[in-house]
Every structure is written in C-alpha cells, then in structure tokens.
Specification:
Shape: elongated
Distance between the termini: 26 Å
Strand order of the largest sheet: 1-2
Helix content: 55-70%
Number of domains: 1
C-alpha cells in the first residue's frame, strides 16, 4: 500500500472520529438537559431532540413539546413566568460545555 493510500485512509478515519464526536456530544447534551428538565407529565422531558449538521459540526438542541392547548411551552419552563421561576435546564447544561466536550471526546475515542 502506498503512502498516499495510507494517508487517505487516515483522513477517512479522522473524519469518522469527528462524526462520532459530534454524535457523542449531542447525546451527552441531551442526557444532561433531560436530567435537568422538571417532570410533571414527562412530555417536556421526552421531547428534547438534537440535529447534527455534519457540514459545519453544528448541533441544534430543541424541544417542540406543546401544552394541552397546543402551544409550545419549553421556553416558559426554561426562563420562568410571573407565576413560576425558570428551571434553566438549557442554560445550566450550556455552563457544563467543557465537561461535555471531555465526555464526548472520551466516548468518541479521541
């Protein structure tokens, strides 16, 4: 096998590790934000999702849960209202970014 072919294989292996890292990072974020989400019915906690854009390694975390009137309500739980304090589940998870990176690197084999 030529050095060129070995080099190409190494590049593809590195790309796969980056993809795995992205998935491990998203998985760890979801795990942590779900742990911090208050549970009454479980609807909000179970609605957390992550989308990974492989072209720019962007991870979008979102929640599309709706209340009984069909209205989205994750933002009200996150930041609170005049009737209840915020849970700040995303905000607190974001503050753990350094630790999340380390866990994702470990889980991705980096």
């Amino acid at each position: 096998m030529t050095d060129f072919v070995k080099g190409i294989e190494a590049i593809f292996e590195a790309i796969e590790k980056v993809k795995k890292f992205d998935q491990c990072f998203a998985d760890e974020i979801l795990k942590r934000v779900k742990e911090k989400t208050p549970v009454a019915t479980g609807r909000l906690q179970n609605a957390w999702q992550a989308e990974i854009n492989q072209s720019n390694h962007e991870i979008r975390v979102f929640n599309d849960a709706e209340n009984d009137r069909g209205e989205p309500y994750a933002i009200y739980v996150e930041y609170g209202t005049i009737h209840m304090p915020g849970a700040f589940m995303l905000t607190r998870t974001q503050q753990e970014a350094e630790d999340i990176v380390q866990v994702a690197k470990k889980n991705a084999g980096l």
